[in-house]
C-alpha cells in the first residue's frame, strides 16, 4: 500500500527516492530492543521534535504496545547504517562499537 503511494508521488513530483525493500526475520521486539536500547542508555538517540510524541508513545508502551512501526523503522535504520567515519577512530582506540558489542553481552536492564 505504501509502496504504490510513494511511487505515484514520485512520478507526480518527478523526484525519485533511492529505497530498497527490507525484509526482517526473527522477533521484532528483540530486534528493536537490541538496536535501540544501547543508544538510549548512552543518551545517543536523537529524535526530531516533530516525531518526539510518536516515538515516546511507542517507547513508553513497549513491548506491550500494538504499534511498534516507528521503533521498528528506527532499528532498521540503525542496523542498516554503516559505521560513521568518526567512529572508526573510536573503534580503533579499543572502545568497541555498541552495534557489535550488543551481540557479545547481555543487558542487565532487559536480559537480552
Describe, in short, the structure shown.
The chain is an all-alpha fold. The protein contains 6 helices and no strands. It has helices at residues 2-13, 28-41, 49-61, 69-80, 85-95, 98-101.
**Rg of Cα set:** 17 Å
Low-pLDDT stretches are: 97-104
Structural class: mainly alpha
As an assembly, this protein is single chain
| Count of alpha/pi helices | 6
Cα end-to-end separation: 34 Å
Q: Please bin the fraction of helical residues.
A: 55-70%
Averaged pLDDT = 76
Give, in order, the helices and strands.
Answer: HHHHHH
Strand content: under 5%
Number of strands: 0
Main β sheet profile: none
Number of separate domains: 1
Shape: globular
Descriptive report:
With 112 residues, the protein is an all-alpha fold. The protein contains six helices and no strands. It has one domain (27-112). Helix 2 (28-41) packs across helix 4 (69-80). The longest helix has 14 residues, at 28-41. The chain is globular and about 40 Å long.
Observed structural traits:
112 residues, mainly alpha, 0% strand
Topology, element by element:
Layout: H1 2-13, H2 28-41, H3 49-61, H4 69-80, H5 85-95, H6 98-101
Helix pairs in contact: 2-4
Amino acid at each position: 500500500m505504501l509502496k504504490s503511494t510513494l511511487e505515484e508521488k514520485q512520478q507526480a513530483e518527478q523526484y525519485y527516492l533511492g529505497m530498497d525493500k527490507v525484509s526482517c526475520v526473527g522477533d521484532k521486539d528483540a530486534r528493536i530492543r537490541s538496536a535501540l536500547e544501547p543508544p538510549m542508555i548512552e543518551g545517543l538517540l536523537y529524535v526530531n521534535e516533530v516525531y518526539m510524541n510518536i516515538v515516546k508513545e511507542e517507547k513508553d508502551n513497549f513491548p506491550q504496545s500494538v504499534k511498534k512501526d516507528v521503533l521498528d523503522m528506527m532499528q532498521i535504520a540503525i542496523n542498516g547504517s554503516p559505521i560513521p567515519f568518526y567512529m572508526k577512530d573510536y573503534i580503533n582506540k579499543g572502545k568497541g562499537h555498541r552495534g557489535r558489542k550488543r551481540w557479545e553481552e547481555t543487558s542487565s536492564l532487559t536480559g537480552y
